[in-house]
Amino acid sequence: MHLLLHPNAVADPVTTEPSMEGQRRQASPEEIALVKGWTCQQFAMSDAEADVPRLLRKVAGAIEDLGDIDILDVTFCLEVEGPHFEAKMAVYFSFPDDAESNSR
């Protein structure tokens, strides 16, 4: 497993604004140019009881099961619906062969 940090990378040309309403905005031409030709894979997992340690173990196990991958980003959030919380994580990654074909 490799951890790649791309501080200016955008995985999707349409990005989500950090708002409670979940509004979306169109990416700028600079953001779109940055990701042209790049691809990534993604998976998400959740825990309905908001058991964060259990969710982290599940995500870690899934990453190990994927084998040799380049981690591009990991996101975490707690969604609240009334008195209930749900922990969610998403992992964005590429396989090393994909990264080589997408290198600039």
As residue ranges, the low-confidence spans are 1-22
Strand content: 35-45%
Shape: flat
> What is the tally of helical segments?
3
Count of the domains: 1
* Biggest sheet overview: 4 strands, mixed
What is the radius of gyration? 15 Å
The overall average pLDDT, rounded, is 76
End-to-end distance: 21 Å
Order of helices and strands: EEEHEHEEH
**Considering DSSP H and I runs of 4 or more, what fraction of the residues is helical?**
25-40%
Using DSSP, what is the number of strands? 6
* Order of strands, widest sheet: 1-5-6-4
Q: Which structural class matches the secondary elements?
A: alpha+beta
Describe the structure.
Helices cover 28% and strands 37% of the residues. The protein has helices spanning 29-35, 52-66, 96-102; strands spanning 2-3, 14-16, 24-26, 41-47, 70-81, 84-94. The two termini are 21 Å apart. By secondary structure, it is of the alpha+beta class. The chain is flat and about 40 Å long. The protein has one domain.
Short description:
This protein is α+β, with helices and mostly antiparallel strands and 104 residues long. It has one domain (2-102).
What are the defining features of this structure?
104 residues, alpha+beta, four-stranded mixed beta sheet, two-stranded antiparallel sheet, 3 helices, flat
Chain-wise SSE layout:
Layout: E1 2-3, E2 14-16, E3 24-26, H1 29-35, E4 41-47, H2 52-66, E5 70-81, E6 84-94, H3 96-102
Parallel strand pairs: 1-5
Antiparallel strand pairs: 2-3, 4-6, 5-6
